[in-house]
Specification:
It is globular, with a radius of gyration of 17 Å. The protein has 180 residues and is of the alpha+beta class.
């Protein structure tokens, strides 16, 4: 695995956030993982990085073309909600639980809606996985100008809690406007 440090973000209220670019040698990845969708591969890589012996302080992945959404899909009081792609072990209650808790990261991220998009056909590290789309209302209140504003890492840390190993990873979907 090759690793390159890309950036460091600072916020006085939270730990420093670091962004890395990883290159994973596919010869070290099981064949069954290479054949599964990108989101599930990222869950595997996140587990590979952290193992099962420590808390999870990472999120892995970047938006793919099938994660794009158009801001015109929303109307009413707000132009749009931000969409977050969550990858987690299959749990029929996960969307219900996320909407029940609803407020995360000191009430700065609110889960408005959740839907499972995809279910893995094979087990990864002994788990069947789900790819979920979360519509979130992000209201950054604990930040000053120039500070880090990506709260996805804090959201994932909160979901993973004190348990060892990474059960959840994810990334922001890409918002676009329809071309004219």
């Amino acid at each position: 695995m090759n690793c390159q440090h890309l950036s460091e973000k600072q916020n006085d209220n939270y730990p420093k956030e670091h962004e890395f670019q990883l290159t994973v040698n596919k010869t070290h990845v099981p064949m069954e993982v290479l054949g599964i969708p990108y989101a599930f591969q990222m869950w595997f890589v996140n587990r590979l990085i952290n193992g099962d012996t420590s808390q999870c302080f990472t999120g892995v992945g970047t938006a793919q073309s099938d994660d794009v959404y158009y801001t015109e899909e929303y109307s009413g009081n707000r132009n749009y909600y931000e969409r977050f792609i969550l990858i987690a072990p299959i749990d029929e209650k996960i969307c219900h639980e996320l909407k029940k808790v609803r407020y995360f990261v000191d009430d700065q991220l609110i889960v408005k809606w959740c839907k499972r998009l995809l279910k893995s056909e094979v087990k990864v590290n002994g788990q069947l996985l789900g790819k979920y789309m979360l519509n979130t209302d992000v209201r950054l209140v604990n930040y000053r100008s120039g500070e880090s504003t990506d709260i996805s890492g804090l959201f994932l840390q909160e979901l993973n809690g004190l348990k060892l190993g990474c059960r959840y990873t994810g990334y922001w979907a890409t918002a676009k406007q329809h071309p004219c």
